Amino acid sequence: MTLDQPPMNTSSASSPVSSPTPKAAPLCLPAPAQPLASPAHFSADYSPSLEFDNTPQPLPTLPSQHVSAANPAISDLTTTSTLSEYGLQIHRHYSTVHCLACLIAWIPSKVAGHLRSHGFTLSNKSEEKLLHVLKTLQVVDKETPLHPKELGPPVEGLATTHGFCCTICNYACVKASMIEKHIGKHKEMASQYGIAYRTGHVQTFFSPTQRHYFEVTAPPPPPSNNSSMLEFYTTNLLPALTATTKVLQPIHHHELPLMVQMTGWHDHLATHLVDRNDIKNLLDLVTVPTRGSGSRLAMLSNIAYEYLHLCGRRITKSSFEIRKMLQKYPMETVHFKPLEDEETTQRYATILAKLANAIIKSIDSSRNKSGYQFPLSTADIANANGLLKHLKEGANKNEQVIALHILVHPFLSHFATVMDSEEPGSKWNRVIECFIALLSVQENGSFKPPSAMTQPLAILKYLCRITCFLHALAQLEDSTKDLES
Question: Which portions of the chain have biased composition (kind: Low complexity) (predicted)?
Fold first, then answer.
């Protein structure tokens, strides 16, 4: 709320809080880099200024402001310098113009007349300027019935009042005579639903001849003067937020980080990110069991560690020319170096173990509660079962390492030969692309920032090189039974 706005009614009958999922289209904002053009009928010496800036800005929060129903900490309302002069704000989701003095929405053609009823004196030029801003923001210009898709908290910027709500349909009103008249239309169905209506809290957007009310939940009571924002959050907001396992989804793809937009991770995993339980099951695919869990898959970390040590020994024995080619060819002086310290080797082995763990779990319905499936061929599934068999039978370490190599090599070698000319959608036919998408997911359903994904991608690049190298040596020696030779 800006300091020069008309005071808001803070009574319980007009308490705006955050809005539920909107039905109308999101607010369309102009590109901030392009200057706003003046209307043709403005004087020639008129030029845009900061007062004519029509880019909505977040509302400032006063240091002494308490979180309450009248002053929520996070507002769905925004304003511009021009609109704030008249106490007008725009709802971000519904694209409606709200008067904060009376807490009701108005269409642009009625805004000027309404402002005059509040004592504002608008010249023709001021009115044209105001209407131009509203037109540029593409706000709702017809008094069409608007209401949230589902029952939820009151829409911010609208007055909340007690009313009557039909239990059979979504009809709501503020007069008992009107609800009695309405339920007469359901007289054949009323006996099936019991009481045909109930009392509740209702809102309406516009103030035409016939108002269209909709039901909302009761607004939270304002905190006492001595209560803090933290106390209000923990006692009123936090319980409601933690009661559901649903995860809020972005309304527009622009709300997603740029890296997520470019990679398409959110689209690929969309059906698995709507519920916290689904996210937990999805992350279980890339979580290697601990040694004390009793799972045979807990051995994957040690097997992957031995696999990297084996690759290091084979690389060290190789000639300088081969190691140059493994690094990048042609290069004259730089050669490929295997991992040296134990901590780095263990970190790289963890990614390799997670890859094998995810593939094995995905083919077993008893382990895969998420339902997510990798694009595996019949041979890939046979290789995964082969490694799992070696783990269950307690085969010697060399056989387990070979089984791990046979499983992961097709995926890593395919990923190493990806061409830039491939179709964007074909990436999800590659297991490693799917695995990277799983690695990027966080517990809250969001995605890791680029800084957190740089190291896993670098590790996968290293694994691609050593796996292809080891397989090439085995083919050269015409033997995959003993990778150590």
Answer: 11-32
pLDDT tens digits for 19-66? 443 444 444 444 443 443 433 433 334 333 333 344 444 433 333 333
Query: 233 versus 299: which is more confidently predicted?
Result: 299
Confirm if 279 and 272 have CB atoms less than 8 A apart.
Answer: yes
Q: How far apart are CA 389 and CA 371, in angstroms?
A: 23
Residues 300 and 281: their CA atoms lie apart, in Å, by: 20
Q: How far is CA 400 from the centre of its chain?
A: 40
Q: What is d(CA 39, CA 19) in angstroms, rounded to the nearest whole number?
A: 34
Whole-number Cα distances in Å, 219 to 19, 201, 226: 11, 8, 20
Q: Give me the phi and psi of 394, to 5 degrees please.
A: 65, 40
In this structure, the number of other CB atoms found within 10 A of the CB of residue 73 comes to 14
**What are 161-216's pLDDT values in tens digits?**
999 998 888 889 988 888 888 888 877 665 555 677 888 999 999 877 678 899 88
Q: What average pLDDT does range 289-305 have in this prediction?
A: 90
